[in-house]
Write a structure and sequence with these properties.
The chain is built from 24 helices and eight strands. The chain has a four-stranded antiparallel beta sheet. The protein has a four-stranded antiparallel beta sheet with strand order 2-7-4-5, with no helix packed on it. α8 packs antiparallel against α9 and α15 runs antiparallel to α16. The longest helix is centred in the last third of the chain and has 31 residues. It starts with 6 loop residues before the first helix and ends in a 10-residue tail after the last helix. The structure holds adenosine-3',5'-cyclic-monophosphate (CMP). The site of adenosine-3',5'-cyclic-monophosphate has 19 residues, from β4, α22 and α24.
């Protein structure tokens, strides 16, 4: 089977072993992630037995990175990123510079070239967003201010690495390598400007056009009422934008996917998009860790024990201490500094990509890449322990009043963002939870159906005296009253309807003309459900359809009775 493993075989081996070792790891009270890495080593080329195709595994892993970064984007709006920019930007940039210098220093001690040192340093300076997300998720830390700072910091790092990846080939010749024809002859300034221009154009396009186009497309899909099509559209947006932006603008898949998520996070579909893509994210993220394990050559531990120890020390302590210091310098409390430090004490996806590129350009010696991979494996495995250690430390340090104020300020800002987000949602009419409180007719609907309704409803206002429905007219929509009151006039009968009641459903159900006049008698906030959406929705929810039919029949009977005989039925 050696070397012949196909996509299915690779995926099967990856999933099955990851599951088995993940489960075992859990039993041993280790994070499942360690199990996934071990599964990778087991199917890797450096251990006997079955060998999966590492090129394929890497591509599958890339899928995991795309989906995870999309997930990060979904939970991380542009406003969030702006809120933490004062710490994330100087922090990440400062930390990359210092960590890279440490890497260059280490390489100099080993007698490597400056180019090799630069690639090594950059590879060690950037932490893995995937690993950080898993760590924060497990600790429920994603929504906390410290978690937000850490994620923002890593996103800035990712952005910096995209630049580094594009610029490295341009500098390769100067640093003593060869650039594989990656713009070797173009002059540096042009290359730099072109790269920056492309990234800026991509970000501008994503932020300006994205929020208009993507939610519109998803809304059209959601209106079809097909869950399958919706999931597919989310996947298409994530993977399509990731791939397209990588091809057109030269940004990485990960960054493209992140912006796809950010674009969606502003829309009303972010929750559902997140819920829909979650299982895929989980599955492919596992393959990411398996593929890291596959690349690992255990013999490095025997060949270069000292060098490996130095690399691991740099990742675990060098970077963390630098990050810790920077966060304190920026005026944030020690607990924040500790969280950021622990978050950064690992390396991952970008490090492999950088090391691979450095190797292909003749900058980094092969053992450099082995060291980066071994360093990644060890630091990722130890990361949960780092967090435990940090927790212990954090419980001992006291927050200075200045740092506390800073963090409280940020917390307030993030809360404010949350509030604004909530306000935006309620502006559309009313919140999902409230639909049922207000309209008992929807009591039997599940959460997703309520979300659908919220999306389909079109808010409409009416002033006293305004005729909303004319008897004998063609039906266009059904109306649900959020506030105010209307009066139904039918054959000399006057029936008032108030909040929580609805009208305009009878003609839609019986495909007839309007049976009565309906006029606003107060300032009304209405939620209109257009005809096409009404039909689609009731056909998907037979229980609701039956209830509406029953009530319509009651209304019809009432209208046939002589005036004054029956109490109004609703
Ligand atoms: P439709 O026939 O589409 O347009 C007029 C609406 O008035 C009708 O649907 C009902 O929603 C509403 N309506 C008609 N008769 C009554 C009634 N007896 N009680 C409450 N509402 C009514």
């Amino acid at each position: 089977m050696h070397g012949e493993a196909t996509l299915i075989a690779t995926a099967a081996a990856g999933f099955v072993l990851a599951f088995a070792f993940g489960f075992l790891a859990h039993r041993l009270r280790l994070p499942p992630l360690v199990g996934y890495l071990v599964a990778g080593i087991a199917v890797g080329p450096f251990t006997p037995g079955f060998v999966a195709d590492s090129a394929l595994a890497t591509e599958l892993a890339e899928m995991g990175v795309i989906l995870l970064m999309f997930g990060v984007g979904l939970h991380f709006s542009a406003a969030d990123l702006m809120a933490v920019r004062r710490v994330a930007i100087p922090g990440a940039v400062g930390q990359i510079i210092l960590a890279t210098l440490m890497g260059i220093g280490l390489a100099a001690v080993w007698g490597w070239s400056l180019g090799a040192g630069l690639v090594l340093g950059l590879s060690l300076s950037v932490a893995s967003t995937v690993v950080l997300l898993k760590a924060l998720e497990e600790r429920n830390g994603l929504a906390t201010p410290n978690g937000r700072i850490a994620v923002g910091w890593l996103i800035v790092e990712d952005l910096a690495m995209v630049l580094a990846l594009v610029l490295l080939p341009a500098f390769a010749g100067m640093l003593g390598g060869h650039s594989d024809g990656h713009g070797a002859d173009t002059d540096l300034i042009t290359e730099l400007l072109l790269t920056l221009g492309k990234v800026a154009a991509f970000v501008a396009l994503a932020m300006l056009l994205g929020p208009k186009v993507v939610p519109w497309v998803l809304k059209q899909v959601a209106r079809t009422g097909s869950r399958e099509l919706f999931t597919l559209s989310v996947l298409a947006v994530a993977v399509g934008i990731a791939y397209g932006s990588a091809m057109v603008f030269g940004v990485s898949f990960a960054l493209g996917a992140f912006f796809a998520g950010v674009v969606l996070s502003e829309s009303d579909f972010s929750h559902r998009a997140a819920a829909n893509s979650m299982p895929l994210q989980d599955a492919f993220a596992v393959l990411f860790f398996v593929s890291v394990g596959m690349l690992f050559d255990p013999s490095i531990v025997l060949r270069e024990p000292l060098a490996l120890a130095a690399v691991v020390a740099l990742i675990l302590f060098g970077k963390s201490i630098v990050a810790f210091g920077i966060v304190l310098l920026l005026g944030y409390p020690a607990t924040t500094a500790l969280t950021v430090a622990a978050s950064l004490a690992q390396i991952g996806e970008f490090s492999f990509i950088l090391a691979g590129l450095g190797l292909s350009m003749g900058l980094l010696p092969p053992e450099g890449r082995d060291l980066v991979l071994a360093g990644a494996l060890i630091s990722i495995t130890l990361n949960p322990l780092t967090f435990v250690a940090v927790d212990r430390l954090a419980s001992r340090v006291r927050m200075g009043s200045y740092g506390r104020k800073r963090l409280a300020g940020l917390e307030e800002q993030l809360d404010e963002l949350q509030r604004r987000h909530a306000a935006r949602e309620s502006e559309r009419g009313l919140r999902i939870q409230n639909i049922v409180d207000l309209f008992p007719i929807f009591a039997e609907l599940d959460q997703e159906a309520r979300e659908d309704l919220l999306m389909l409803f079109q808010p409409r206002a009416a002033a006293p005296g305004e005729r909303i429905i004319r008897k004998g007219g063609r039906p266009d929509a059904a109306y649900f009253i959020s506030s105010g009151a209307v009066q139904v006039n039918v054959d000399g009968r006057e029936i008032p309807l108030g909040p929580g009641e609805f009208f305009g459903e009878m003609a839609l159900l019986s495909r007839a003309r309007r049976s009565a006049d309906v006029t606003a008698i107060d300032y009304c906030q209405l939620l209109a459900l257009p005809e096409r959406d009404f039909r689609m929705f009731v056909s998907k929810h037979p229980g609701l359809r039956a209830e509406l039919d029953r009530l319509a029949a009651q209304r019809r009977t009432m209208n046939r009775e002589p005036v004054g005989d029956v109490a109004p039925a609703v």
